[in-house]
Amino acid sequence: MQIIEALDFTDIGTFIRSFILLFLIVFLRYIFISGAYHWVFLVIYRKRLRQRILSEQNPKGIQIKRELLLSAYSAIIFSLMGMLLLILRQKGYTQIYSDINDYPLWYIPVSILLYLVLHDAYYYWLHRWMHKSKVIRHFHMEHHKSVDTTVFTSFSFHPVESFLQALIIPLLLLIIPMCVIAIMITLTLMTISAIINHAGVEIYPSKKNSSLFRKYIIGATHHDYHHRNSKKHFGLYFTFWDRLMKTEL
Ligand SMILES: [Zn+2]
Ligand SMILES: [Zn+2]
């Protein structure tokens, strides 16, 4: 962290090199996690999970290419937002702390949960707004072109939607004190949650075994329904807002 803090981002060369490195980390990490998830749940365990696969149609290569291209744009936008975050951090505007002892250890999971709850609320209302007829046509339809979703649908958005989704990261870190480790865990949870919701296979416990979990945590079945019926299921991590606003089936 100290090495990053010592960098001079007003130097254009340093800025571009840092941005390219950040882009490669964001994009390759996403490809690796998505690819690994697909390989484990839809190749190795495909037969065992046959009853839990939400669509038997194999998405066409053209869909995958479109999703990967849009995901690359999203990675550019999220990396630019990451650069903004680094600059804000250098200037002392964020609540990010790097010494784990600055706050009690119990605060790490609390800060992650707080971030996820606030992010979930932001996303729900942003998503509701993006489904207004004029907005969806311009900015959200790219994501909904994928009806039979894949792991790569999880980051495939119109650049304006990507910008609005990425904006919440620096905004929340201006107000929530978070350790660097907690931020890394949160970003990984964000990526994995999006992949789980779009992979087209339900991996969460079945209703009989764990109805509470399925009731409150959004998984593939919940979000798959949104891609097939866009008038319901707008939440991101938790079903709270969908239940409160009666947009859950
Ligand atoms: Zn989606
Ligand atoms: Zn939508």
* Assembly context of the chains: single chain
The assigned structural class equals: mainly alpha
Mean pLDDT: 93
Biggest beta-sheet profile: 2 strands, parallel
Low-confidence stretches: none
Q: What is the H/E string?
A: HHHEHHHEHHHH
Furnish the topology, listing elements before pairings.
Layout: H1 2-6, H2 12-44, H3 61-90, E1 96-97, H4 107-130, H5 133-144, H6 159-175, E2 178-179, H7 180-198, H8 211-216, H9 220-228, H10 240-244
Bound molecules: zinc ion (ZN) (2 copies).
Briefly summarize what is shown.
This protein has 249 residues and is mostly helical. Helices cover 64% and strands 2% of the residues.
Description:
The protein is mainly alpha-helical and 249 residues long. It has one domain (2-244). Helices cover 64% and strands 2% of the residues. The chain is built from ten helices and two strands. It has helices spanning 2-6, 12-44, 61-90, 107-130, 133-144, 159-175, 180-198, 211-216, 220-228, 240-244, and strands spanning 96-97, 178-179. Helix 4 runs antiparallel to helix 6. The mean pLDDT is 93. The chain binds zinc ion (2 copies). Residues 127, 131, 140, 144, 226, 230 line the site of one zinc ion.
Give the key terms.
64% helix; two-stranded parallel ribbon; 249 residues; 10 helices; binds zinc ion
